[in-house]
Amino acid sequence: MLTECCRGLYMMVSAPVVALTRVQPWIVLLVEFLKAPIMRLLTAFRAAPLLAACVVAKANYPAIPEDTTTPVQQRLAIYGPNSISIGWNTYARQDEPCVEYGTSSDNLDQRTCASVASTTYPTSRTYENVVILTDLAAGTTYYYKIVSTNSTVDHFLSPRTPGDGTPFNINAVIDLGVYGEDGFTIQGDKTKKDTIPTIDPALNHTTIGRLANTVDDYELIIHPGDFAYADDWFLSLDNLLDGENAYQAILENFYTQLAPISGRKPYMASPGNHEAACEELPYTTGLCPDGQKNFTDFMHRFGQTMPSGFASVSTNDSAKVLANQARELAQPPFWYSFEYGMAHIVMINTETDFEDAPDGQGGSAHLNGGPFGTANQQLDFLKADLASVDRAVTPWVIVAGHRPWYTSGTACTPCQDAFEDLLYTYGVDLGVFGHEHNAERFLPVYNSVADANGMNDPKAPMYIVAGGAGNIEGLSSISTQLDFSEYANDEDYSYSTIRFLNRTHLQVDFIGSVTGDILDSSTLYKSHDVRAGLGISPPWPFSLNAVDPDAGCHRAAKALTPGSAIGIQPSSASSSLELTSENPTEYGDSESMVYCLSPAIQAKWLLPRIQDPDLQLEMLLA
Ligand SMILES: *[C@@H]1O[C@H](CO)[C@@H](O)[C@H](O)[C@H]1NC(C)=O
Ligand SMILES: *[C@@H]1O[C@H](CO)[C@@H](O)[C@H](O)[C@H]1NC(C)=O
Ligand SMILES: *[C@@H]1O[C@H](CO)[C@@H](O)[C@H](O)[C@H]1NC(C)=O
Ligand SMILES: *[C@@H]1O[C@H](CO)[C@@H](O)[C@H](O)[C@H]1NC(C)=O
Ligand SMILES: *[C@@H]1O[C@H](CO)[C@@H](O)[C@H](O)[C@H]1NC(C)=O
Q1: Among 187, 328, 532, 557, which one has the highest count of C-beta atoms within 10 angstroms of its own C-beta?
Q2: Distance of CA 526 to CAs 466, 474, 496, Å?
């Protein structure tokens, strides 16, 4: 209690220093210089008995439900090709967390229980529960009920099979903090602060409200970092004397507000700087209580619900070996990957676990986090994971992390040094970042040089910053845009919707949270020609009317070079190599559905046909 009080007093003195370090990096040096005297001062504070009087609990905790089996803070994630994880918290330990589910809301005929009881960590009032559902049919609506004497039925769409070419949308939401007394504000203008402590999705509360109101328009959310902003507890003066509880109260409120969304849609998380410790003040993590440093809440909350990676469904043996290596090297929830329809999505950790990582040991933020893997584990993972992608199965490769290296604000140079070459080498299509509290879109770029092809089949990745979701720190202004910055908005709360239109076209939009308007829209064309296949989208039987024969022929002619792949019926592969519309039930789910034709077969059978437009058409229509 006493140390808590000291922490409050300490923060009163140091909060302005935090603010200054954000704008003046030299302050960090000053803090470094003053560290020893500050620590001595704190030790003295701890010894002062009169401070015991200052402990007054003030945190804005949500009410604890009378029924302590009541699930709160529900969160889903894609856990495997046919698997969803369901995480939730309770205010009492549950011996055997269970979920009932089924494909009809009034017949939840299946039940899965966790093999372990719920867990918690110091300073938390709640317990984490996780159940993993497996063997789900792909792309199917399931109804589920967390087993409790006080729970209701919700539903989710099970993951689309890797390789399924059905168009879908995802949202990228980053830097989204709590609403209410300890949260969301408009920079420097407390009068506009939203004071409603809990979120009714029917109300408009910018991003959370918009995500709730449009919940049927997207299939999952990626959120690479900065949740809740619990470490900003001291920005509400009322919290100064009860930081430990204020930190937890903000987490409870935020994840309760998020539950209508994260309990319905897979919500894929990776870490940001605001997950690191009880406060973002350099050198002070040692003052944080156990449970409020080293990404503890983040790790407990998402560690058992995020996937490691998917086994490859490619027929290419080296792709399978690499995907297995990546799975071994993954460290969820810090770095991992998953596949969904046409997309392979990698979540990375820009905070710790690479050279000069900002929140790592000795990093520039002095937050003393991690490491969470062995030396080089994260980069070895990323390399193996990106190398394993078979673009005939998942043509789109997205990498999402917290700190950007392309921004008109403050770039993360160590992040660029660690990651950029890998993204470029392996042909990543889109990099999604946040951290800067605004929206920005860049032309495809490598080494700060824009790709000459622009959005028309570039080799370099396109990058966005989607950090404008809204939090207690407000938006960050952009003064001068980089020359390859195509769109910048520092005035509207926003998030990004990424639309996987088909195997060659990806649409990236920024949505204004308040109005729902599309603020900016751009389309990236990628031929993905190394192994792009014929561009006929499973699931089969496909409708040939939906395929533009000219476009199909053109793409095929470009795509079918030696080593490329083509989706065909397995039974016909050995004999006539005809495409048929017979229905293989699970495209891409087993090894059989994507065939790599040997260069010899291609030269003998396929290439002559491709060169003849009529025969090519015949092949498509066979
Ligand atoms: C049951 O759950 C609802 C919704 O989460 C909550 O508002 C209510 O307080 C709970 N009831 C009891 C008895 O705990
Ligand atoms: C929410 O916003 C929409 C569009 O801006 C508006 O039409 C509607 O009345 C608002 N609802 C509430 C409850 O404020
Ligand atoms: C943070 O947690 C990780 C994983 O438990 C551990 O390996 C690491 O040593 C911890 N770092 C600190 C500074 O405690
Ligand atoms: C892919 O989508 C783009 C944009 O909507 C469209 O122009 C193109 O024809 C589509 N390609 C196929 C094969 O459907
Ligand atoms: C198989 O995969 C490896 C690694 O991704 C790649 O280098 C190689 O070109 C692929 N082989 C074929 C025939 O596609």
Answers
A1: 532
A2: 22, 35, 20
Residue indicated by tokens 């954000």 = 22
Domains within the chain, CATH numbers bracketed: 2-54 (no CATH), 163-525 (3.60.21.10), 544-621 (no CATH)
Which of 119, 287, 361, 372 for a ligand 3 pocket mutation test, highest count of atoms within 8 Å of Cβ?
Answer: 372
Nearest CA to ligand 4 atom 8: 505
| Residue in 148, 136, 132, 147 with CA at minimum distance from that of residue 76 | 132
What is the DSSP pairing of strand 449-450 with strand 445-446? antiparallel
Q: What is the mean pLDDT of the chain?
A: 80
Can you give the pLDDT at residue 472?
87
> CA-CA distance, 366 to 361, in Å (whole number)?
7
How many whole angstroms from 441 Cα to the centroid of ligand 2?
A: 28
pTM of the predicted protein model: 0.81
Q: Which atom of ligand 3 is nearest to the CA of 368?
A: 13
> Which residues does a 6 A CB cutoff place in the pocket of ligand 1?
65-67, 70, 150
User: Using 50, 70 and 90 to split pLDDT, how confident is the model at 615?
Assistant: very low
Residue whose CA is at the smallest distance from ligand 4 atom 10: 502
Q: HEC string of 555-591?
A: HHHHHCCCCCEEECCHHHHHCCCCCCCCCCCCCCCCH
